[in-house]
């Protein structure tokens, strides 16, 4: 997975330059390292350059969490955008926020919301939501890996499967070099380490794998009752 800094920057930039908004409320899970990281990086992306601010961060994991009251409270405090940064554990609570919002504030989200459930359950309330995800889906659809996956499992795969496969190939490659904990770490950090993934070579730079991201938007499909994720170009 890419560093959380990358999707946070893209979403923050979209909020300021495309939505022309400066104040956001973030919904996150305080017990999740990923969720906390995305929240913090999004706050930084707005703070630096005085482009905007997170006026409130609301913890989805609280026992007394109330989605309708939380959204109403954020609007009363001046929030102009809702940023959803849950992990999978509180995915369903994020969907409750989407429904409680009823399209009043624009929605931004991390990749945890990139799921058919968002389209099926969120429906019209999720329309217009923008998410930052790894930009592999078009390449995946045309790849030999996709053809093999369909033959093996009978259905197409998405970028999560591709990145999981790539992670496995990287671990195998590191094990072949040096099958110890420290050896694996040294191998992955080595400048000359590279293995072939599902579509692209896998290598690391300063601890992260360089991966391009794209923004996708929930939009109505051919049927007005169906919604889909569509890539936003040049955003």
The rounded Rg comes to 19 Å
Calculate the mean pLDDT score and round it.
91
Order of SSEs:
HEHEHEHEHEHHHHEEEE
Please report the number of helical segments. 9
Strand order of the largest sheet: 2-1-3-4-5-8-9
Query: Biggest sheet, in brief?
Result: 7 strands, mixed
Number of strands: 9
Helix content: 40-55%
Q: pLDDT under 50 segments (min length 5)? A: none
- What fraction strand? 15-25%
Span between N and C termini?
A: 21 Å
Oligomeric state of this protein: single chain
Shape verdict: globular
Helix-strand makeup class: alpha/beta
Summed up:
The protein is an alpha/beta fold. It has helices spanning 5-17, 33-47, 67-76, 91-101, 116-122, 137-141, 144-153, 159-177, 181-189; strands at 23-28, 53-59, 81-85, 107-109, 130-134, 195-196, 201-202, 213-220, 227-232.
Features:
9 helices, two-stranded antiparallel sheet, 235 residues, alpha/beta
